[in-house]
Each structure stands twice: as structure tokens, then as C-alpha cells.
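Form 7-S
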Amino acid sequence: MNDGTSAQSSHQTVADISCAECQTPVNATALANRTTKTGTTLCPECIELYYVACAGCVMLIPRDESLTRDSLTLCADCFAKPLSSAVDADLLKNPEPLISEYIALHAEEKRIKTRMEQLKEALKEVAAMQQRVLNAVTLRAGEQAVKCSFRSSVKCNQEMVESLAERLDETEFDELFERKVSYSPHKERVQQFLSRVDDEQSEARELLRSAITETETATLTVVANRKE
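Output:
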């Protein structure tokens, strides 16, 4: 009985990691490199015969479903994205020149930003000692000039303002302060709520989908050289 159960379990494990095209067992340690864009597992032979890697997302896609632009093979999603005018096909294949130039400019940018902040603070101190015209001072060097504008703002202590609200009537308080209410969504909880399938909150889920907008931001950082 145990042998039968064990054999059945073994058979199911093999089936779970079999090639979707020819049903040949696939080495589990290599699955990461043999999975299609839709998560389908493939063997090396079928990949070579029927699939190709998208130049954009580098995921495997069926050859007969691939699209071509500027000699690049792309999936439908990447093909739909506009190709940046700053990046040609050769640079997409070999981005080393872009990487080298970016790192060099990144170092220069840091130096320039640091020096500019130092200069701005020094010029602000100089302007603060000059006579202001309409809350601004213009500093000149020949035909060149910079203008320093001054603006003051008022901030308040939340707890003390709440105490003040208790002493003033609503009209007086509203003349002094603007009441604001803001909402910050909890991303994971929102996603969990939207993934539910119960009918009780279906209307609320539709309202939530209309109330939020999800945007993606790409951040590029320079990787420090590895220490040997």
C-alpha cells in the first residue's frame, strides 16, 4: 500500500515539472530559465524548436506569436510599448555604453548638485543682507543675475490647535484654520480586499477600483563595485 502511494506521489511530482509541449520531465533546478511568460514549463528541445526570448522582458514566447520591430523579437506586451527615441536597437542588445556613460554622469551629477547647494546657500546669505524689493533681491555680476525670493509660511502644532478649537466657536476657528482630510491607501490591504470574490462587498470593490489609481515608478541606482 505504501509502495503504491509512494509511486503515485512520485508520478505526480514528475508530472508537475514536465514539459508542456512534449511531457518530458524537466530538471527542477533549471525551471527558472525554462518558463514561459505565462508560467508554462518547457524542456530545452522544445524551447529551441518552438520558442524565443523576448528582447524586452526576456521571457520565453512562442515563435509564431512573436512580433518584430527594429530587428528585435518582442512579445505582444513589449511590442505595444513605445520604443524610446533615446535607445536604438543596437543599444538594447548591448547596453554597456549606456551603463558606462550613466555611471560617469551620475558621479558628475552628485558633485554638481553638492556644489550648487553650497553656492545657493551662500547666495541666500548674501541676499538676506540686502534691501528687498517686493520680498526679493536681485544679485548681479555684469550681465548675469540671480534672483532670491523670500516667502514665509505658518505651521501649527496639531495638539495645540485642537485645544484652541475647543476655546473658539466654529466660525472663529474656521476663519483661522482650514480643515483638511486626506486618505492614504494601504496597498496590500487594498489588493486583498479587491481580490475577494464574495457578493456582499462587490459594489464596494467596484467603488474602490474607481477611487484608486496604481502607478509604477522605476528607480535606477548605481551598484557599488564588488570588493574582492
